[in-house]
Amino acid sequence: MGCGKQEQADTNESTPTPNTNEVSGPRVQPDGDVDLPLKEKVIGKWDMGFFIITFNEDGTAEALEEGVTVDTGTWTIKDGKVHTVNSGKFGQRGSVVIYKMNEKGNLENPFGIELKKLD
Fold this sequence. Notes:
This protein is mainly beta. The chain has one domain (28-117): Lipocalin. It is built from one helix and ten strands; from the N terminus they run ββαββββββββ. It has one helix at 38-42, and strands spanning 27-28, 34-35, 44-47, 52-55, 60-65, 68-78, 81-86, 96-101, 107-108, 114-117. An eight-stranded antiparallel beta barrel has the order 3-4-5-6-7-8-9-10. The protein has a two-stranded antiparallel sheet with strand order 1-2. It is globular.
């Protein structure tokens, strides 16, 4: 450029190819089990022993005691953990509880209380 010479186009440029190894949605493990994304595993009803907690697909949550709603809130997934925010009907408004999924597939809160999936 600038000295009267023309640059030739590089005809050896490769065209990017899509990554065919990426998997979206459930993954099938070598033992045949389906590994669902964490969000899909969390959605549903969980028994806490004294409450039933429902994690809804739309990110809302509900705590039930003997079939009666005693609290509501929201939930999201951050850093591979389930973060819940309390609405204030039970406990302090805006309080956050973070659950992790343990090796048994149960949700566990920081106090060591396990929630077992009902669905």
